[in-house]
Design a protein that fits this description.
135 residues, mainly alpha, single chain, extended
Length: 135
């Protein structure tokens, strides 16, 4: 059983991700003070990168297969270690902000490109299979 809203969002390419993102952008642009009434964590999603990173990594972590964990820990651990090292030493404080921004940018780019590339590849494979089946 699927919810009607999920079926509607499923008709839009990447709609499950893009529609809430667009709604959030409109709310943040039209009424920037409205995020204060959402509470500390929900309001922070509109103001900083760290809470949204936590949500992204939490959601991604829930979908990880156990055999893929070493690769993910190696890749993410290097980034996390660099951020923690930069934040721990006051001499590297300016680098901590840019490192956090780089990780956030990486998560956002991955979140946008993965569904688009997956949909494109699925259409390409389906077209190849149809052409192969017709010959």
């Amino acid at each position: 059983m699927t919810l009607p809203i999920y079926r509607t969002l499923g008709r839009i390419p990447c709609g499950v991700m893009l529609v809430p993102l667009a709604i959030g952008a409109v709310v943040a642009h039209v009424a920037p003070e409205a995020t204060r009434i959402l509470g500390s964590f929900s309001g922070a999603l509109f103001t900083g990168a760290l809470p949204i990173l936590a949500v992204c990594y939490g959601c991604r972590g829930a979908m990880i297969r156990l055999d893929a964990a070493p690769h993910i820990l190696r890749e993410g651990g290097v980034l996390l270690g660099a951020i923690l090292f930069a934040a721990a030493n006051p001499a590297y404080a300016p680098a901590a902000a840019s490192a956090t921004l780089l990780v956030f940018a990486r998560v956002v780019v991955t979140a946008f490109t993965t569904p688009l590339l997956t949909a494109w590849w699925a259409r390409r494979v389906a077209a190849f299979r149809r052409a192969d089946a017709s010959t």
